[in-house]
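Data deposition worksheet. Section B asks for the primary sequence of the deposited chain exactly as it was used as input, without tags or linkers unless they were present during the calculation. Section C holds the resulting structure in token form. Section D is free text for depositor observations; keep each observation to a single sentence. Incomplete worksheets are returned to the depositor.
Section A, Depositor: J.P.
Section B:
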Amino acid sequence: MTVPDPDPDSPAPDAPLPRSLPQPAPRLRLRSPGEILALVPYLLGFHPSESLVLVAVRGPRRRVVCTLRWDLPAVRSRRDRESAVCEIRSRLAQAEGDAAVLVLYTRRPPGRRRLPLVSLVAAVQAADVPLLDALCVHAGRWWSYLYPDPRCCPPAGTPLPAPTEPGGASGVAAAA
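Section C:
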């Protein structure tokens, strides 16, 4: 009697089992703009400066589906803003995102009554890009373009979360 050769693709009967099963992707619940801002460097792989960042989300749980970054000097003129807005709409559709958070990282200090690059945020809104928020980050503080109420967004800005605070960078890194 002959025994058929074992299938070369099947493991040997005494082969060790894999050390661990694949783990599901970590889930983070972001509850504030500060927590979103703490996540952005991890999504990009570096800390942005003089940049426009779009974090696209999808579905009722607002899962991140895409993160994009542009150099700010490239979006200062009207033509450049229009090009950036077209790119934002295209990438949001490509990622099947249904909303987004727009973040401007700038060295230009916000004025007393006006944040820098308001025209860019207005152009994104006019293009029917559903923005959950639009944030400006400068010198360790952030402001919202969409929620100017001083009770939640003080005129002097809100400090970015310290890396060791809950919702800060170390909390984001630990959960990732």
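Section D:
The two ends are 56 Å apart (CA to CA).
The CA atoms of residues 4 and 10 lie 14 Å apart.
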